[in-house]
Design goal:
The structure is a single chain. The longest helix has 17 residues. Helix content is 32%, strand content 24%. Helix 4 crosses helix 10. It is globular. It folds into three domains: 79 residues, MurE/MurF, N-terminal domain (Udp-n-acetylmuramoylalanyl-d-glutamate--2,6- Diaminopimelate Ligase, Chain: A, domain 1), CATH 3.40.1390.10; 213 residues, Mur-like, catalytic domain (UDP-N-acetylmuramoyl-L-alanine:D-glutamate ligase); 146 residues, Alpha-Beta Complex (Protein-Tyrosine Phosphatase, Chain A). It is α/β, with parallel strands linked by helices and 471 residues long. It is built from 17 helices and 21 strands.
C-alpha cells in the first residue's frame, strides 16, 4: 500500500473545507483516538462524550500529519496543519465518499445479526492472498467507523471489505450508500436489538437496507437456511440484485456438502453446482462453517480466484472477545479459557456453547460456563434467557455461573448440582469464578457488551497467567 494516502490539496478538496497550514508529514492514515494514533495520521476531532477538539494538541504531539477541526477552533501552540470544516464528521464522510469514488477496487459489504466481524476477517485473509486488500479494522461498522475505513482506503487496493452494523432502523442505508458495494452479504437475521425493533421481521427489514447501496447489477449473498430468507430475497429482487444463497439447504447455491468439526476448526467441503471446494478452517464452531460458505459465495461474486483464496481460511483465528482461546498455566495443570466477552445474543450464545463442546473431555474434563445478561431483547428477554437451557445442556456444561437478573432465571432452571454462583453484575462474579475454576477446566465467558464480562477474562489472565494459545 502507498506511503502517501492523500495529497493535502486533494484531501482539503474532498473534505470541502479549507486549509490552515501544510503538513510536515506524509499523510498515511486517519484516526479519531489519540491513544491509537500513528505518525502520519490525520486526526479527526469528533464530538462524543468528550469533544475531540480537546485532544488536537495531543494528536500533534503523537505525530499527527494534520487535524480536521471545526471552523471556529482556536489554534494552539504546537498545532500543525489544520483542515477546517463546519462539521468534522461531515468532512470525514465527504473524504470517505471521495476515497470510494477514486477507487477501482471490487467492494464487499457485510452485515447481519451475528458473524459480521468473523466473516469480514475471513474475506480479508482470502482476498489478501491474491491482491492488495483493504478492510475494516476491528468492528468499525458504525457512523464513524465506516467513513473512517473508507478514508483509509488506498487508491491501489484491488479489493475492499467493509462491515456495516446497526442498532436502529435507518442506520444501514446511509452507510451502504457511502460504501456502494459490488457485493453485499447478510450473514443471518436473529433476535438482536429486539427491544428497539419489536420483531425479528423488522430486524430483517433493517438488515435488508444494505441492498440499497449495491451498484447496479451487484450481488446479494443471502442465508438460505434463515427463516427470513423469503423477505430478504424479495428485497434483493426489488433492487435488481443477482441473488446467491448459502447454507445447508439443498437449494443453496453454495452449500455445505460435508463438515468435520473439531476443537481446532473444521474440514469443509462446499458445493457450487457440480464443483467441490475443500478447505480447512482454523477457528472452531459451526458458525464459522456456515459463514465460510458466505465467504466462498462472495469470493466468486467478486471474481476472485477462490481456489487460491480458500487455503487462507486455515489461518483464521477467533479474535479477543469473540472466541479467542488461551491456555492458563497452574501449578497442577492447565485451564483453557474461551473469551466470548465482547457481546451476546441468543444465536451467538448457542454458537459459543456448541464451539466449547468441541473441546475433548480427555483434554479438559470439566466445562464451566459463565454467562451475563443478553441486552436489548425487550419483552422477549425472559423466555430467550430461559430458552438457553437446552443449549447449555447440549454443550454438557458441568458448572454454570451467571450475572444479571435475566441470567438468574437460566441459572435457577439448571439442576442444582450444576448451579454455580450468581451475582447482580459481572464484578460480583470475579471472586466466585476464581474460587471455582480448577486445572482441567475449559471456561467459556460470554455476555452482552453492556454487562462488562471482559474484566472476568482479565481477572483470570492476571491471576493464573497465560501460556501459548490453546484449543
Amino acid at each position: 500500500m502507498s506511503e502517501r494516502l492523500w495529497q493535502w490539496r486533494d484531501l482539503v478538496a474532498a473534505a470541502q473545507g479549507h486549509a490552515d497550514g501544510t503538513p510536515g508529514w506524509r499523510i498515511a492514515g486517519f484516526s479519531i483516538d489519540t491513544r491509537t494514533l500513528r505518525p502520519g495520521d490525520v486526526f479527526v476531532a469528533l464530538q462524543d462524550a468528550r469533544d475531540g477538539h480537546e485532544f488536537v494538541s495531543a494528536a500533534f504531539k503523537a505525530g499527527a500529519a494534520a487535524a480536521v477541526v471545526r471552523t471556529t477552533y482556536g489554534r494552539r501552540a504546537g498545532d500543525g496543519a489544520l483542515l477546517r470544516s463546519p462539521d468534522p464528521l461531515r468532512a470525514l464522510e465527504a473524504i470517505g465518499r471521495a476515497a470510494r469514488a477514486r477507487s477501482h477496487a471490487r467492494i464487499a459489504a457485510v452485515t447481519g445479526s451475528a458473524g459480521k466481524t468473523g466473516t469480514k476477517e475471513m474475506l480479508r485473509l482470502c482476498l489478501e492472498a491474491t491482491a492488495p486488500t483493504h478492510a475494516s479494522e476491528k468492528s468499525y461498522n458504525n457512523q464513524w467507523g465506516v467513513p473512517l475505513t473508507l478514508a483509509r482506503m488506498p487508491p491501489e487496493a484491488a479489493f475492499g471489505v467493509f462491515e456495516i452494523g446497526m442498532n436502529h432502523a435507518g442506520e444501514i442505508t446511509p452507510l451502504a450508500g457511502m460504501v456502494t458495494p459490488h457485493v453485499v452479504v447478510i450473514t443471518t437475521v436473529e433476535p438482536v436489538h429486539l427491544g428497539q425493533f419489536g420483531s425479528v421481521e423488522a430486524i430483517a427489514e433493517a438488515k435488508a437496507e444494505i441492498l440499497h447501496g449495491l451498484v447496479p447489477g451487484g450481488s446479494a449473498i443471502l442465508p438460505r437456511d434463515n427463516p427470513h430468507f423469503a423477505l430478504l430475497r424479495e428485497r434483493a429482487t426489488a433492487v435488481g440484485a443477482r441473488i446467491v444463497t448459502f447454507g445447508y439447504h439443498e437449494e443453496a447455491d453454495v452449500r455445505c456438502v460435508q463438515a468435520s468439526l473439531d476443537a481446532k476448526g473444521a474440514a469443509v467441503i462446499a458445493g457450487v453446482g457440480s464443483q467441490r471446494f475443500p478447505y480447512r478452517l482454523g477457528a472452531p464452531g459451526e458458525h464459522y462453517v456456515r459463514n465460510s460458505l458466505a465467504v466462498l459465495a462472495t469470493l466468486l461474486a467478486l471474481g476472485a480466484d477462490a481456489m487460491r483464496c480458500l487455503p487462507a481460511l486455515a489461518r483464521i483465528a477467533a479474535p479477543v472477545g469473540r472466541g479467542a482461546r488461551t491456555l492458563l498455566e497452574t501449578g497442577a495443570g492447565q485451564i483453557l479459557l474461551i473469551d466470548e466477552s465482547y457481546n451476546a445474543n441468543p444465536a451467538s450464545v448457542r454458537a459459543a456453547l456448541a464451539a466449547m463442546a468441541t473441546v475433548p473431555r480427555e483434554d479438559f474434563a470439566r466445562r464451566v460456563v459463565v454467562l451475563g445478561d443478553m441486552l436489548e431483547l425487550g419483552e422477549a428477554a425472559a423466555p430467550m434467557h430461559l430458552g438457553l437451557k437446552e443449549a447449555v445442556d447440549a454443550a454438557g456444561a458441568d458448572l454454570v455461573l451467571a450475572c444479571g437478573p435475566m441470567m438468574q432465571l437460566l441459572l435457577e432452571a439448571v439442576e442444582p448440582a450444576r448451579r454455580g454462583a450468581w451475582a447482580a453484575d459481572a464484578a460480583g462474579l470475579v471472586a466466585p469464578l476464581l474460587a471455582a475454576v480448577q486445572p482441567g477446566d475449559v471456561v467459556m465467558i460470554k455476555g452482552s457488551l453492556g454487562t462488562r464480562m471482559a474484566p472476568l477474562v482479565e481477572a483470570m489472565l492476571a491471576r493464573l497467567g497465560a501460556g501459548p494459545p490453546g484449543g
